[in-house]
Amino acid sequence: METPIVVGCFAGLLITISLLQPLARRLGLAPSVLLAMVGTLIGIGAIFLLNTKYTDAFNTIAIVFVDPPLDAEKILYIFLPILLFQTSLTLDVRRIFEDIGPILVMAVVAVFAATFFIGLALYPLGNVSLVACLLLGAIVATTDPVAVVAIFRDIGAPARLGRIVEGESLLNDAAAIVIFILLLGILTGSHELDLAKALMAFLRSFIGGAIVGALVARLFVMLLPIMRDLPLAQVTLSLALPYVIYVLSDQFADVSAVVAVVSAGIVFNLYGPSRITLEDWDFLHHVWDQIAFWASSLIFVLASILIPRLVEGFQPIDILLLFVVAAAALVSRALVIFGLLPLLSLFRMGESVSTKFKTVMLWGGMRGAVTLTLALSVSEHQALSPEVATFVTKLATGFVLFTLLVYGTSLKPLIRLLGLNRLSARDEALRGQFLALALADVRQEVEQTAQDYQIEPRIADPVTETYAERARAAADASQAFADLKDKERVILGLIALADRERYLVLNHFNEKTVSRRAIALHLATAGQIADLTRSEGRAGYNKASRQALRFRFNFRFAQWLQRRLKIHRPLAILLADRFEYLLVCRIISNELVAFNHTRIRPLVGDRVGTILNDTLCARRDDILRAIDALRLQYPDYSDALETKFLRMTGFRLEDTAYAMAHSQALIGAELYNDLHGDLMRLRHETRDRPDLDLGLQTKDLLAKHSLFADLSAEHLSDIARMMRPTFATPGEKLMRKGEKGDLVYFIASGAVEVRTGTDTIRLGRGDVVGEMALVTGKPRSADVTALGYCQLLGLSASAFRTLLQKTPDLKAHMDRLSSERQSMNAPDASPKPDAGNA
């Protein structure tokens, strides 16, 4: 096969792909449907030209399409890694993890359901083994929901629904290919037909692939900072990653290469943005979008070209079998969507999905290039019998055509029939209100422009009058907005504020006033606020904003490391992250209050605008309280972070001034580059965040405590060896009523609240809490909760007794304190403000 001919045919395919995109838009079809149709026609035409008796002039070109230089293995190796990797890059990974349970269940259960439903339905009718029928089921279990997701976005479906569908499709391919490889091994004799062993092999391949992909991706992410300000090198490194992972997993690690690539893409997406600039990450995404477009289009059209060859010898009985496959696939998918999703909602593993959206998800189960490529690999497998290869190939290929021609062409009419393409009453009302305000502003701007450029009124007036008429028409149509209840308007305003918050976060990151460590948490919070606002209204907005201020599992784990293993650094890093997060939240909350006043209030009215302002102010107060609690404990660190913020803001303003002067030709390129270089050096020196010292050195904490202030250095060293420094967070329960007393705390800084059931007492620096249970041997009689961030010295029961024996003065003090608290607990005693009982 001559190389120039192959290159020319390849160029022709690229031209065809590019021209089909506008045609698909004009016809209202999914591009994949049109690609399959045209690819099939190219395949039919090539077979005709090769076999016709009328001319041999096109045989050289026809042979390229009839017997292409790429087999199934090459197609998978060339195209599949980058397709899977790019899909992983487009996911909002942190939001995906919130729904990882439903996504994993839907993806894995849907694949198994489709495999077994199709296999068992075909077995009585097909003249092949059950394993061969199951193999066909695994091949057609892979879905291609790109068109469905795009339609969801167009009609404004909940973002969470789109994430579940995208996540399901990604893991769906991985699970289906793992099952396909296992069944193919059983069919060819390389694996034993043992259900338990097959299940273990599936788990080993799936989990092993996830681990290998994650580890290798972390190594590649660590290399990104070396290529700082070299976006082309960064893209090149990212392009190598999926191929390295695929080959390593498939040829050496003996785990699922598909799962490994998906895992690598998720890890790269999770940690990559914090290693390079926002501009470079956007550039990387744009390049990958282009690469994925080429790959997905080429793999689809190449596979479609082979369809005429794959369905050769199609018999009438095959039509019956094809309908059995279609019916079984539809039933299995319906059971997952209509049976599993309600169960997930019932057990609070996800929000409910409307019947209309479930119907679209069901009908959107189209199959695509992966199914065709797997079918092609079966047709080329030498160890399979011709009967099995033909059976699987024909039905898999026919099913792909069926889904594309039936589901693909009827999906948009179904959307219109269900009314999902129309704006909701709430959005329709908002449209008119917004349009009226926007057109009035545009009219004023056009008038001002005409005056500034001295355009005659006879020319300008017709243009401005057009906008005036449109504004009046929009105002008349916006009467529906006036009929909306305040609750609906509040939801509209909060959704707009949530979207604005995401914009502000990205803007701050672009201006380098938000660090790379903090950006991910801010974006995840903004996304969660938007989703809960859409589903639960004002209550959802408040719920999501408060959840963001809570201490998460990773913080509690870091506390455990500090308390049990005396490892302080993870806690210090997370506490510094929280400090920075809260300071940026304060800035953004102020910007949202201003945005509501200038932009949202005119849209929703003064009464609703006031409600929105109260909601924002309450959220800002929560943020300020959280900041004040940290600032009281670490005032110097707070000052350092705010100083860093101001310096980064100054650098941004300075950079903007230099760029503007250069664009206006006030300074030349050499002077600009020199100034910009100096600024980059200063910014690089200021980039790193200062380290937070938790102040948990035992001797320093002992010196802060009044009971130990007068002890000698030698005595302090002896006591320090018995003490365990402990860091407590606001609201943390330190002791519980009724539990066994095995620990006492000396408060070095901060304050705690002791609740006995009848009294509430506050203890602070210099006080002791929890000693009564150790002295009396009885269960604790009070709950003890940290009021703010506290630095405590913990002492076990045995160490406490040893300490009292070694320190007579301390023993005497504890005896007095015990006597006072016992008298306080007497029925006729009144509570004392400086004592507690636990």
Integer count of domains: 5
Q: Tally the helices.
A: 34
Distance between the termini: 88 Å
The profile of the biggest β sheet is: 4 strands, antiparallel
Strand content: under 5%
Mind telling me the CATH class of the largest domain? Mainly Alpha
Shape field: globular
Q: How large is the radius of gyration?
A: 34 Å
Which structural category do the helix and sheet elements fall into? mainly alpha
Q: Give unreliable regions as ranges.
A: 829-837
Mean pLDDT: 83
What is the CATH architecture term of the largest domain?
Up-down Bundle
CATH topology of the largest domain: Na+/H+ antiporter like fold
GO molecular function: potassium:proton antiporter activity; sodium:proton antiporter activity
Subcellular location: Cell membrane
Domain Cyclic nucleotide-binding: 707-811
Protein name: Cyclic nucleotide-binding domain-containing protein
